[in-house]
Amino acid sequence: DKYYVYVESPKSGLAEWTAKPVIVTTEAGKTSRHVTLELIRGGIAEIEITDGKSGEPVEGATASIYDYRIHFSGAPSGKDGIIRIRLAPGEKYDLRSVYKHGYVTGRVRTAFTIAEGETNSFKVSLTPLTKVKGVVLDESGKPVEVAKLWIFPRGGWITQSTTRDGKFEGTWDYTAASPSGVNMRFVLIAQHRQRDLAQVAEIGDGTKGVNATIALQEAYTVKGRVVDPDGKPVSDARILLYMWYAGSGGSIQDILSD
How far is Cα 128 from Cα 63, in angstroms, rounded to an integer? Predict the structure, then answer.
């Protein structure tokens, strides 16, 4: 088997040295010895990350750089919003993405090479995740605790449980739910199964924050019986409840028959 041995970037600060990867061939039961990596200064990839709304530097972001064999990430960005990664010259690299919790992942896909002693600079602007918050009330206007909320279609959970005063708060990445070039429309679904309460609130295309007051109403109940071709009851049959909205659909609940 063949493996690549390389110098990994430190998790803090900029490495003083790097090295070109070397190939090591191994055999079962044997130890590969005298593997040598020659340290060199190399070049530096410098990625400046800013907040897409405020323009301020983003601290704590990480970058993913690949050659055709190895993934490089380096230390997170500092207060200046800059990531610096030392790389070996003569290789072809691909700056694929930049990530920071609370932001839409910046998918860059920029190919580059680097020379000894050279610094290649890149600028990436991250879009903050859309914030979704509000309060859930029952039909009498009282706060509803332990209600669940999620975004449909393909938006994922906002919370599994509202607070004692019925409040909820979360974020979501609408770009992950929207196929490229498709103008999607989304809804926020609230549900309290123990009390058979539910409600659906329209939230648009996901680009703007949401601050909603959701008044739950008595939910629809779907009942039925699953039988085989001979009319005999079938247990453990999976029943999916689908919902359609603005041309998109998906399952919002599934249960098993008794």
Answer: 17
What are the tens digits of pLDDT across the range 225-235? 999 999 999 99
Cβ-based neighbours of 33, under 8 Å, separated by 6 or more: none
Q: How many domains does the chain have?
A: 2
As a whole number of angstroms, the distance between CA 116 and CA 44 comes to 9
Question: In this structure, what CATH number is given to the domain that contains residue 91?
Answer: 2.60.40.1120
- The DSSP call for residue 133 is E
Quote the radius of gyration of the chain (alpha carbons, Å): 26
Over residues 193-211, the pLDDT tens digits come to 999 999 999 998 888 899 9
Q: CB-hemisphere CA count at 13 Å for 13?
A: 3
Q: Is the link from the previous residue into 10 a cis peptide, with omega within 30 of 0?
A: no
With a cut of 80, say whether residue 245 has pLDDT above it: no
Task: Encode 146-197 in three state secondary structure.
Answer: CCEEEEECCCEEEECCCCCCCEEEEEECHHHHCCCCCCCCEEEEEEEHHHCE
